[in-house]
Amino acid sequence: YLKRRMPPPSYETDDMVLPRVFLALDNIRKNHAGQNVALVCHAGIIYAVEAYLKTQVGYKNPTRRYRIGNLGCRWIKWDGAVFKLGRRVSLLASENLGFTGASKS
C-alpha cells in the first residue's frame, strides 16, 4: 500500500475518526476536571487533532503535517469552552511535562 500510495482497506479519514477522538477527549475532560492527563495514541490521531484545531483558529495551512517523532506528544488544553493546541514536547524530556511525581528513570 505504501509503495502505491494507497490507503489500506481499513483506513479512516480524519473526518471519520475525529468524532470518536473528541468524544473521548470530552469524556476525559469531564471525568478529570482540573487534572493533567496523559493519553497515548498513534501519531495519525495527533496529526488529525492538530489539523482540526488549527482550522478552528484560522491557521494559513492547517492540514500541513509536521512529523512527530517517536515518544513525541502534544499538549491539548481545555480553556473552559474549547480545546486548544499547546506545545509539542518529547516524552524523553519528561521533566518538561509538568506532571508531579514523574519518574526520571
Mean pLDDT reading: 86
**Rg over C-alpha atoms, rounded to the nearest angstrom:** 15 Å
H-E order: HHEE
Name the helicity range: 25-40%
The largest β sheet comes out as:
2 strands, antiparallel
How many β strands by DSSP?
Answer: 2
Secondary-structure class: alpha+beta
Shape: globular
Strand content is 5-15%
- What is the number of domains? 1
Q: Count the helices. How many?
A: 2
Question: What is the end-to-end distance?
Answer: 39 Å
Could you state the oligomeric state of the chains shown?
single chain
In the sheet with the most strands, the strands line up as: 1-2
Q: Segments where pLDDT lies below 50 for 5+ residues?
A: 100-105
How is this structure best described in words?
This is Phosphoglycerate mutase. The protein has 105 residues and is α+β, with helices and mostly antiparallel strands. It has one domain (14-94). It has 2 helices and 2 strands. A two-stranded antiparallel sheet has the order 1-2. Helix 1 packs across helix 2 (43-56). It is globular and about 45 Å long. The chain starts with 13 loop residues before the first helix and ends in a 15-residue tail after the last strand. 4% of the residues are buried.
Q: Which key phrases capture this entry?
A:
105 residues, alpha+beta, two-stranded antiparallel sheet, disordered C terminus, His_PPase_superfam, His_Pase_superF_clade-1, Phosphoglycerate mutase
Question: What does this entry show, briefly?
Answer:
InterPro entries: His_Pase_superF_clade-1 (IPR013078), His_PPase_superfam (IPR029033). With 105 residues, this protein is an alpha+beta fold.
